[in-house]
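Ticket #4471: structure export looks truncated?
Reporter: QA, pipeline team
Priority: medium

Steps to reproduce: submit the single chain below to the structure queue and open the exported record.
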Amino acid sequence: MRSIDSIAHPEHKMRKAAGKPRSPGSTRPLTCARAFIEEEARSAAEDGFGSIHRDPAWDPELWPYTRCAPGDKRSLRAAVATWHRDRDAARRNDAIAMIREKIESVAGQADRQLRDRINELGGRDPVNAEVRDACFHHALLYHLTGDMAYARTAHAILQRFAEVIPDWKIYRTHYGEERHQRVYDQDWPDYGKVWDVAGIWGTWWYKDPLNGVPLAEAYDLIHDSNLMQDTGTLDAIEHMIVIQPLLIKNAPRSYGNMDGSTIRSILLYAELLREPQWVHDCAWWIHSIYKTQFYADGWWHEGAPLYHKHVHRNLKSIVREWLDGYSDPPGFVASDGTRFDNLDMSGQLAGPIARADHALATAIQPNGVAQVIHDTLFRQPSWWTGPMTEANSRLYGRVGHCILGAGKGEHMVQASLHFGGTHGHAHFDCLNVIYFAKGKELLSETGYRSLDAPDPMRPWHTMTAAHLTVVVDERSQDGRSALNGGSDIARREKQPQDAVPGIPDGHWRWAGHGDAMNDGRLRLFNVDFDMVQVARADGARAYAPSMEQYRRTIALVRINETDTYLVDIFRVRGGRIHDYMLHGCLDEPHSARTSIELNDSRDGTMHGYIGHLRSTKTDDDWSVSFELDDGSVSHKTFVAAQRGTEIIQGEAPAMRRADVAPFLAVRHADEQSVFVAVHHPYTSRPLVRDVKLLSSTRDAVKLRVMLTDRVDTVTSQADGFTHEARGRWRYDVGGRHTRRGTLIRTRRLEAGDAFNAFITRADLPTDGSLDGQTLMIDLGGLLVQSCIIDRVERRDGDTVILTNDEPGITLTEDLVKLEYFPNWGIQGSAAFVIAGSKLEAS
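Actual output as written to the record:
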């Protein structure tokens, strides 16, 4: 078994012809026949996630072999597979009947007529795809019947495609009003460097090679007829077939979210054309993606569950379907000097695959829907995992997201804090909050986009004002480009130590998918006390360089076994106008009623989308109640007094449904703001009676939460947090319980060590008091990455902080090297903070 780092980058050289020389009359086992059988076997297979056909990455009916309806195509291939496997003549006759029905529209056309329909327009003329499908169907009829007339028709069509396809053009764009408006030769140097280009068949370039598979299968099906060999057309036909996958295979690597589709198509061609080198190339490609595009915590770098699912499930299925168990032909050695014998790629990628599985399986809500983080469709059922029965807390300390969870069954609650950067398919939503309780996402995220194209609401889904965070100076947070009123982010300049041995940079690495420097920084994540859980993060770089402070603290507090409230403290320093954005459950119709009358009307819109504005100014405490129209659930947000507050309420597109929803901006026009709120969901009557701000300074906030049966006091300080329930408990986090130090080494299972750990000379307790706490590591002042401590031990004079997580970094003298995305080599040290805690009776 070889490690990820042992696979060198292969060279890619286009050849004049792909096929190996064959003498007339040569025979070989049909690739297509085996593929048909395997597809039929897969169609009936089930794994731990249920039917594999629920995932498009597994489903052969979604692969564009032909333009048949998916159900018809699947039935045809299943019939052929059954005939191959069981020699069932009835199934053979079924297949023949289905094919004859498919070719009925061309049945009366002579071979010359079919050839003449093929033209130089490529993907811009659907006739070419129609004749391509006829070629495949005639070849399959020859295979089923042995009738040479069908083989001759397929051969005539293949011969004509061999004449025109080498000169077909590629197009830009692949969609929209400008579809196919710009035309380029196949040697266009920017092919693969722009995302919206179409291939020679007119479809998106990532998927375009799949459109040529029917021709490759037709070639395979009639190979034993010897027509290509006897007429001298074999080389030209093989050349026509091979240039289709090579067009994208030779393009610059992007290691992007569509690469799985590309790799799958290349492996199809590799099998049909007997190209073991391509199998090696694809194996290296997949290793490179897991090494450079996934964080050490398992997350796909774009941080969106939708794209994480799409990429990881696709790659994982390719590994299982195509690569595990693969062996090279006898005597073959790849260009890097290796060969595969019973390849165990799942074993080689066991760590990255397991971590990616875990991220996908745990970033879900109690209602079985994936959390909508960044560009994720609402509602995305989490069919890949079983139903949630208990809400657990989760830290994804590399991508920048955490979940505070409590309760079981219908009483499950989640409060999530997002503090990631923008690395592709991102929303401008650093320090956004999601609050799920009473079976509803009561403080909700937005969505990806509507189903309409073009989508005028797309910017609204992504902009800061649509999220539950703070807008500064009426513009969105900074992103990869100056969208939605934001500015371009600070970017890391490429350094020699950022190189990944054996893996050239992906095309987009220094263009927004690996150079963004706007990630948030975790400051607290303490979930060791089930009654109070705390998270805090800094997000000042979301508005860099103008922000001195942009920090949010949330605390999920249990009132009893069924009810909770969420403390929410947001400190801002920098800029001149701060809008604390607030909205309710965007899934369902609801109202928002403030405790203070909003008597002043305002013209125009706020943040581009919020209209019908009403407002008032206040220096007092106030609240807003969000009530679902069906009366099932409500939640009340108590907002503490802040001098000079303006409450602005309006309506804007609900995004998750075709209607509007109420949106509020709590505006404070000052260089410094401290927003203090308590969110409380309830069904019949609220259990939080009132909230009083006791003090608020530059570095500390103290408030009192009055419940029906107790009084809680919350203190949030610069380096800590305290929650005291009178007569019950006092829970301290950080402050005098904080431990600090510098890491000197790491131990990594993936590097051959016996365990995962961080090594320090700092004196840390080994009595179990740090078990389950969070290790927050500042990497040279550029990034903060975090993981959970399993236990602390003393070994050979050093302190060993063991973790069940992949450490993700290697430390050498004055250099921190990230082993996974973004793979930077950061000059400096790795300083750590552990915000310990103490629980005592009050």
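Status: closed, not a bug. The export was complete when the record was re-opened. Leaving a note from the reviewer for reference: Residues 126-145 form the longest helix (20 residues).
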